[in-house]
Amino acid sequence: MKLIRIFLIGCIAFKAIQSAAQTKDTIITVEKKIIVKVPDSVSPWQRKNTIGFDLSEIAFVNWSAGGTSSVSGLLKGNFTRIYNKGNFKWGNEMIVRYGVNKQDGIELRKTDDAFQFTSTAGYRRDSVSNWYHSAKFSFNTQFTNGYNYPNTEMPISKPLAPAYTFLGVGAEYSNKEKKINLYISPLTLKNTMVLDQRLADQGAFGVTKAIYDDVTGERLKKGRQMKTELGFLFTSHFKKEIFKNITFEHRLNLYSDYLNHFGNIDVDWQAQLDLVVNQYVKANIGFNLIYDDDIKGKEEKEGEQITVGPKVQLKQVLGIGLVYNF
Description:
The chain has 326 residues and is mainly β. The protein contains 2 helices and 16 strands. It has a single domain, classed as Outer membrane phospholipase (ompla), Chain C (Beta Barrel). The strands form 3 sheets. Strands 1-2-3-4-5-6-7-10-11-12-13-16 form a 12-stranded antiparallel barrel. Strands 8-9 form a two-stranded antiparallel sheet. The protein has a two-stranded antiparallel sheet with strand order 14-15. The longest helix has 21 residues. The relative contact order is 0.10.
């Protein structure tokens, strides 16, 4: 009996060990993958390109009240690149315009012609201030010859005749909320280039004209093709939607030379209203007023061009056309 008990106890113990081995805890490992998307770095560059084409046309057929058929076209573009990082800002803008007009019985005539480039670099002390210590450079010229119509034999202007450069240092006030930008420079170099010798010999656009012999009329000294001035420059730019779908833009440049009749102010003022029809169609009304004491007017008298004194120059624009932004 004692042996039987020992055998039974051994069997029970063996069964217990076997059961424990079969029911041991199972450890399940779950791996969870978390994917974190790192956003692309924000570029400090802001880019905007705008091109447009304005077209106006009027035609008459057997119109008893009379009239002249005509068609006008204006191609324009505005391209900006602005670098803004920390307290440093570098703004670049290029403006191009070219327009022509064709009337019955009259040759094709130019109505607008401009190439303008401006670059301004500025640094501010903190991120709160709207004032920057700035340096500005600008370059203005035209694409083709200009004429005092109907005389198309003698150009009164050419590409790079004139061309203007401004280079200076000063302070810039830039307020994004109020959409206004002001620049004040007490030290700006202005260069006037007339890279056509015939126009330079005439002293066009303020350069020193040629010297001729009073008797023979022979040219003794060529006219200078460049004039440098040092003066004070003030510019302002304002662009804002004043009513729904109506945007007003204003640009003003004022310059006065310290050495040559300080107080005589060169004025270049542009103002424009843009009336938005839809995303691609826009009407505009604007004007450009220029006064420069160094630019002498020209008049046609008895088939000859006569140089007269400086005059206020005024250009008015009214157009409707297509606009594409990209």
